[in-house]
Amino acid sequence: MQGQYAQMTDAAYEIRRNEIAALSADLAPEDPIPVVEYTEWEHEVWRTVCVDLTTRHRTDAAAEYLESAEQLAVPLDHVPQLRDVSRRLGSISGFHFQSAPALVPLREFCGGLANSVFHSTQYLRHPRSPFYTEDPDLLHDLVGHGNVLASDRFARLYRLAGNAAARVQSTEALQFIGKVFWFTLECGVVRERGERKAYGATLVSSYGELDHFRGADFRPLDIKSLVDVQYDISTYQPVLFEADSMDEVEDTVGSFWDTCDDESIAALLGGTALPRG
Question: For the CA atoms of the chain, what is the radius of gyration?
Fold first, then answer.
């Protein structure tokens, strides 16, 4: 993004981000989502990214994502209030947002999904790098996750992921469930009429990811194939898994989350050690 806002210092940005995060720091789950008075630079970041993403989505996003996004109708010309989008999403699929000051721990995040709750930040990325962010922000959470959560199919998959995480006890099993989530609901790709289309939230909410994803090492979607693949959330993804259809995504990933437990995941890992966290 060009202009005066791109010159914002890191210190000024951190102060603003912390101000917004503080609004959610001590909230109970039943508390209302705070209203944020967004500034002009935040509205400009939102407009800049959404205008460019809307164009890219016509060629790079999966049809089911586009249909779901049309249903939710997140505003493109200004930063919406999270509570307003949450109300609309609830009326469509039963999912709601809960404001979080930052990225929440995996078990807490998945616990929310099991109860049709998605933890979302309310701050925006730095205006110096509007098209890619290492950390989840409101753009990622609404344009990426919110748009797909208006789809009944995706809402079911998110709930299944949450229920699977609630069912397991070991750190290894939980992390593997998170890895499956990453390579599908965050970075998933599907073939439509012979072309690769993105449906994962990380891809569809990032102009930079959409620029890079077609150059990835693509592999067929298979749960066993995920075991030995590592990933880094702070960079563009060199390896992606693609499905032949959204039905295949639902069958493969949904079936895994619906039936997995500590024992089945341990057998799948076959002694592969995952880092404890």
Answer: 18
Of 93, 145, 151, 206, catalytic: 145
Identify whether 205 is a catalytic site residue.
Answer: yes
The one catalytic residue in 205, 206, 209, 242 is 205
| List of the chain residues with pLDDT < 50 | 1, 272-277
Distance CA 147, CA 156 (A): 14
Q: What's residue 277's pLDDT?
A: 35
Does the annotation count 96 as an active-site position? no
Q: Are strands 96-99 and 239-243 parallel, antiparallel or unpaired?
A: unpaired
Report pLDDT for 234.
80
* Residue tagged active-site, from 42, 44, 64, 186: 186
Task: Single out the catalytic residue among 57, 96, 119, 140.
Answer: 140
Q: CA 203 → CA 79, 161, 206, 240, distances in Å?
A: 20, 19, 6, 11
pLDDT confidence of residue 105: 93
pTM for this model (two decimals):
0.93
Task: Answer yes or no: 126 catalytic.
Answer: no
Q: What's the pLDDT at 274?
A: 41
- Give the containing element (helix H, strand E) for 241: strand 239-243
Whether 145 is a known active-site residue: answer yes
Q: In sequence order, what DSSP letters do the residues of 2-41 get, joined into one string?
A: -SGGGG--HHHHHHHHHHHHHTTTT--TTSPPPP----HH
Q: Measured between alpha carbons, how far is 34 from 7 in angstroms, rounded to an integer?
A: 28
